[in-house]
Structures are given as C-alpha cells and as structure tokens.
C-alpha cells in the first residue's frame, strides 16, 4: 500500500475565473501561512498564468489531499 500526498493552491484570475496548481510531494507539516506566502509570491512575481493567459489576481485557498493505492492480488 502506498500513500500519495499533494497540495492544491487555488487562485482567482483577473478575468474572474479560477486557476490552480498541484504540488506533488509537499513537505510534512506545511501550514496554511506557509502555503499563502508561497502562493502570494507566485501572484506578485507573475510566475504562472491562468487559462487564456490571464494573470493571477489573488490566492484563494489551499488544500492537502492524500490518496492511498493498493495493488490488486
């Protein structure tokens, strides 16, 4: 059995739509404040764009998702 953890950072774009990025293998103990700091740096430095090349306007949320897989026998 294997666990996989990812963190999703979600953003609003300047055209009113949403965008997200997935971080595979985030470090253990990542806090919301740390995620906000990283996300705000992405917005401020225009590191990524949303659909239609729309700049990100703001960070909206972060979530951690853990999935578990098991080989069939």
Verbal overview:
The protein has one helix spanning 32-44; strands spanning 2-13, 18-24, 56-69. With 73 residues, it is an alpha+beta fold. The chain has one domain (4-67). It has a 3-stranded antiparallel β-sheet with strand order 2-1-3. The longest helix is centred in the middle third of the chain and has 13 residues, at 32-44. The chain starts with a strand and ends with a strand. The mean pLDDT is 94.
DSSP strand content: over 45%
H-E string: EEHE
Mind summarizing the main beta sheet? 3 strands, antiparallel
Instruction: Please count the helical segments.
Output: 1
Uncertain spans, ≥5 residues at pLDDT below 50? none
Share of helical residues: 10-25%
């Amino acid at each position: 059995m294997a666990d996989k953890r990812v963190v999703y950072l979600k953003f609003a774009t300047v055209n009113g739509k949403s965008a997200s990025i997935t971080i595979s293998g985030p470090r253990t103990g990542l806090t919301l404040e740390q995620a906000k700091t990283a996300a705000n740096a992405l917005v401020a430095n225009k590191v990524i764009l949303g659909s239609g090349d729309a700049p990100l306007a703001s960070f909206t949320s972060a979530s951690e998702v853990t999935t578990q897989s098991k080989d069939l026998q």
